[in-house]
Amino acid sequence: MHWPTLMIAGIAFLAAAAATRFFIPVLKAMAVLDHPNDRSSHETATPRGAGLAIVAVVASAWLALAIDGETDELWRIAGLIAAAIVLTVISWVDDRRGLPAIRRLVVQAVAVTAGLLALSEPGRTFQGLLPLPLDLALTALLWLWFVNLTNFMDGIDGITGVELGAIAAGMIVLAVLGSAGTLDVLGIYSAGLFGAVAGFLVWNWSPAKVFLGDSGSVPLGFLTGWLLLELAAAGAWAAALILPAYYLGDATITLLRRILRRERLTQAHRSHFYQQAAQRWQSHARVSLVILALNAILIALAAWSSIQPWWALVLATASTLAVFAVFRDRAGDKP
Q: What's residue 211's pLDDT?
C-alpha cells in the first residue's frame, strides 16, 4: 500500500467531522435523543446515533485501503466490514426502540465468529501456546467482551473518541517505529480509525452536541478489537494488552464488583471509575483528559514492550491502577 498515513487520517477526520455535523439535525428531527435520567452523566436531551456516520467513514476508508492491497486482504476486510454493518444495523434498532440483551448478544456472537475468518493468522492470538480450537474459542470470547466493554464505557463526553483514538494512535506509532509486515498494514487501517474518531470528537467533546449511540460504540469496538487481535497475532501481544488497558481494567473490575454485589447486570449504573470521577469533579472534559494522559503513557509503554514486554505490562498496570485510585469515590462507591 502506498497511502500516506497522514493523508488517510486527514481525509477520515474531515469526512467524519462533516458527516457528524450533517447527522445532528437529522437525529433531532427523527427524535433520536438520549434523555437524561438518574443514572445519566448528562443533563440535557442529546441526539444519539452519530455512530452511523462514523462507521460509514471507517468502512469506506478501510475498503478503499483494502482495494489497494492484495485480493485475499480485500475479501477479509470486506467480510469484516459486512459483519460491522450488521452490528451497526441491529444496534441502530436498539438505539431507536430497544432490543432484549440476549438478542443483541447473539448477533454480536455471530458477528465475532464470522470475524474470525477475517484474521490474517487465525489461531495465533495466544502465540501457538494453545490448541487451535481453544485459541479460536478464547479469541472469540475476548473479542465479544471487547465489543461489549466498548459499549459499556461510552458513558461521558469524549471518552470513546479519546480511548479508541489513542489505541489507533498507538498502533500507528508501532508501525512507524519500524515494525514489518502485518504491523505496517495495521498502521494504515489504524490511521483511518484515528481520523474518523477524531472527527467525531469535535462534536462529542464536552459539552457534547451528539453521542455515538450503540450504533457506533458496538461496531467500532468490533473493528478496534480486530486490530488488537491482529496486533497480538503478529507477536506484539504485550502491546495488544497495554494499549486498551484503561477500558479493559475499568470495565472488567466494575463487572466483577457488580457480580460480587449480586446486582442485575442489565441494570443501568454509574459505578465505573470514570463515572465516579465525572460525578465528583462535575467535569467530563477533566476525566477524559486524565484518560488521554494515561493513554499517552500506555502508548510509550506499548512501544517499549517490544524490548521489555513484562516490565512494560507491570508499569502499564500500575499506571492504570493509579488512575483508578484517583477516580474512585470511596464515599460514594455504590451502584
A: 96
Chain-centroid distance, C-alpha 47: 20
Question: Which amino acid would we find at residue 32?
Answer: V
Determine, yes or no, domain membership for 159. Answer: yes
Residue 225 included in any domain: yes
Per the document, the length of the chain is 335
| One-letter amino acid for residue 311 of the chain | W
* Cα of 88 vs its chain's centroid, Å: 14
Q: Tell me the pLDDT band of 42, cut-offs 50, 70 and 90.
A: low
User: Could you give the CA distance from residue 244 to residue 280 in angstroms, rounded to a whole number?
Assistant: 24
Q: Are 61 and 194 in contact (CB under 8 A)?
A: no
pLDDT attached to residue 105: 95
Cis peptide before 133 (omega within 30 of 0): no
Q: Are 251 and 155 in contact (CB under 8 A)?
A: no
**How far apart (Å, rounded) are the C-alpha atoms in residues 213 and 200?**
12
Other CB atoms closer than 10 Å to residue 275's CB: what's the count? 22
- Residue 129, burial from CB neighbour count under 10 angstroms (0-12, 13-18, 19+): exposed
Predicted confidence (pLDDT) at residue 297 exceeds the cutoff of 80: yes
State the pLDDT confidence band at 43, using cuts at 50, 70 and 90. low
Contact between 220 and 212 under an 8 Å Cβ cutoff? The reply is: yes
Q: Does the pLDDT at position 195 exceed 90?
A: yes
pLDDT at 40: 52
Cα-based distances in Å from 25 to 16, 45, 211: 15, 13, 13
Q: Is the dihedral of CA 66, 238, 325, 253 positive or negative?
A: positive
Q: C-alpha angle with apex 169: 165 to 173, nearest 5 degrees? A: 175
Within a domain: 252: no
Residue 23's domain comprises 5-237
Sign, CA dihedral 28-166-290-272, equals: positive
Residue 37 is predicted with a pLDDT of 57
Give how far the C-alpha of residue 207 lies from the chain's centroid of Cα atoms, to the nearest Å: 21
Instruction: Work out how many domains the chain is built from and give that number.
Output: 1
